[in-house]
Design a protein that fits this description.
single chain, 587 residues, alpha/beta, 20 helices, 14 strands, flat
């Protein structure tokens, strides 16, 4: 309803301005501050004061008089407050919101007929996923969810680096060292098993016998050349390692959860010839030159000082070269491409975009969004190669353990008498624990470095995942209790029975969800949805404190409030779903 009301107000305001000869390019429509009961406001009078030759309050009154309230959908009245125009909704707006928000897909926008590929995570398959990189799958998945809710046809991709030196070293190490030479794996998972070979190999290359290291380097170079030439046997050797490690990484990512529609391998663009074809086209460009036998692009015209190397002096391509072919493939198959990258990839991203333009691509199709690192208190390192740092599995395990303790300590204070079993407690602990990690990370602006703090993330009383999840559980509890007494939310209720300020504030908050999702998708900022959930939880809790539902004073009020709880349950569940956070039915 909010989106429809906003459109109706914009049309009515533009018409009133045009009739008075005022420009309509900037309507100044915004949400008013919390202490103003209006649904929308406009600051357009500030802009028009000079042109009108009158003070803003006078202009605001003039424009307000020209707005046709009766012809504007959901508009009950327009009032001025100094220079501002305030727009108030009618009862039809509340009734429409109450009905719409009880549908399962509430918050989802109509299909746009536009496809978007979201590439995220894409961590090198060299070992377990570490906490420092956990922001990528969490933010990336939330971005994809937001776009899907906003009506885009979304695919989630993981770009697999299976052609670089790291994978050649890994393959050589896996084929060289015996299990007996390695320490016990930290977990019984494929990525933890094989990372031991990678670490052993790097240690050997750094400190081994020089002659043996030279032999190893020759074999590593042979593997790299085999991949570059498209040799099938070499590809199979490397794939055994890559696919095994990747399977373990997928297990971890699925716990967040973060899933993918396709794992796109870098070698694909070597094997199909598209990387070589991109190299030939770059060579023919006016920006290409040679430097010590290597081919580079001079990107000074794009304000980039560092040369872009796209072919080594030995004739082999680079990761960046293959990524060019990868992105051209995206452009051919999707309307838009969004890539989630760490801050350390900014230079690569700018070089890539410039090189794509050299190749004749419209890079308006591409959006690169960046995130800063997640730190833990104490500043632990995050190096896969050295085998230090904190694995994401460890963080999630601890989150679940801490959530379990919190749930168990609250058992005696629970309002619901639903006899939670051990399995119930475990399920809730996982929903709350993993949700706390994910919510705490996705709720921050991606470009800000954050330090994950347990006390905040798992605080049931603060603005955290448990705080919001508890609203959903409370809604479920009220509806279940009503059902136990033979009452279910009625299909047709009188929304006018919702007359208190708390009820109307909750309906107003519910109405905003589709618009919040639309704006978050437009700007690729899922943290806006997290902010909305916190505000919604506060609004719902105020309603819960002041407005008894099952013991309401009369039947119309009781039915209307139960319907409002049902609408709240759908709203908070879907908002949490956008963020990838579970909505527990009991806590």
């Amino acid at each position: 309803m909010f989106r429809q009301f906003r459109s109706a107000v914009a049309a009515a305001l533009a018409e009133a301005l045009a009739e008075r000869g005022y420009p309509t390019d900037d309507l100044g429509i915004e949400e008013p501050p919390g202490d103003v009961a209006a649904t929308l406001a406009s600051s357009v009078a500030f802009r028009l004061a000079g042109e009108a030759g009158a003070p803003p309050p006078e202009v605001a009154a003039e424009v307000a008089d020209g707005i046709d309230v009766d012809a504007t959908e959901y508009l009950s009245r327009v009032e001025t407050s100094g220079p501002y125009l305030n727009f108030f909704t009618d009862d039809a707006y509340l009734a429409g919101t109450l009905e719409a928000a009880r549908a399962d897909g509430y918050g989802s926008l109509p299909e746009r007929g536009e496809s978007v590929v979201v590439e995220h995570t894409s961590a090198n398959p060299t070992g377990p996923v570490h906490v420092g990189r956990a922001r990528n799958p969490i933010v990336g998945d939330a971005v994809a969810n937001t776009l899907a809710y906003a009506g885009y046809d979304v695919e989630r991709h993981y770009y697999v680096n299976d052609a670089g030196r790291q994978m050649a070293v890994f393959t050589w190490a896996f084929e060289t060292f015996d299990e007996s030479e390695l320490p016990e794996p930290d977990r019984e998972k494929p990525d933890y098993d094989l990372v031991r070979y990678y670490r052993k190999g790097n240690s050997f290359l750094e400190a081994g016998d020089p002659d043996e290291v030279a032999d190893a380097e020759a074999e590593i170079e042979s593997i790299m050349r085999g991949l570059e030439s498209g040799d099938e046997a070499t590809y199979e050797r490397v794939s055994e390692v890559v696919d095994t490690v990747l399977s373990g990484m997928q297990e971890t990512l699925s716990r967040l959860p973060a899933g993918f529609d396709e794992f796109v391998k870098e070698t694909r663009f070597i094997r199909d010839g598209s990387a070589a074809e991109a190299v030939d086209r770059l060579k023919d460009s006016e920006y290409a030159e040679t430097d010590d036998g290597a081919w580079v692009l001079n990107l000074g015209e794009w304000g980039i000082d560092k040369e872009f190397v796209f072919l080594r002096s030995d004739g082999t391509s680079l990761y960046t070269t293959r990524d060019l072919a990868h992105h051209e493939w995206k452009f051919e198959n999707y309307d838009r491409a969004v890539t989630v990258l760490g801050e350390d990839q900014r230079l690569h991203a700018s070089q890539l975009e410039a090189a794509l333009e050299v190749l004749g691509n419209d890079t308006d199709q591409l959006t690169s969004m960046f995130y800063s690192w997640v730190n833990l208190p104490g500043g632990e390192g995050m190096s896969t190669r050295e085998g230090t740092g904190v694995d994401l599995d460890d963080l999630l395990d601890e989150a679940i353990d801490r959530a379990r303790e919190e749930v168990e300590t609250r058992m005696d204070d629970r309002i619901r008498d639903d006899d939670l079993t051990y399995a119930d407690v475990e399920r809730i602990a996982e929903q709350v624990g993993v949700g706390a990690v994910r919510y705490d990370i996705v709720s921050k602006q991606p470009t800000k470095t954050i330090t994950f703090e347990w006390d905040h993330a798992l605080d049931f009383e603060a603005q955290s995942a448990p705080y919001v999840q508890y609203v959903h559980a409370r809604c479920c509890g009220i509806i279940d209790e009503a059902a136990a007494g033979g009452t279910t939310p009625a299909a047709d209720v009188d929304a006018e029975a919702l007359s208190t300020s708390e009820e109307r504030a909750l309906l107003a908050s519910i109405a905003r969800l589709p618009a919040v999702i639309e704006e978050a998708a437009e700007d690729l900022e899922p943290h806006r949805v997290a902010t909305y959930t916190r505000e919604f939880a506060e609004t719902f809790n105020a309603f819960y404190r002041e407005c008894p539902v099952l013991t309401a004073e009369d039947e119309p009020t009781r039915e209307a409030r139960l319907a409002l709880v049902a609408a709240s349950r759908t709203t908070v569940a879907n908002a949490l779903d956008v963020l990838g956070v579970a909505a527990p039915e009991s806590m």
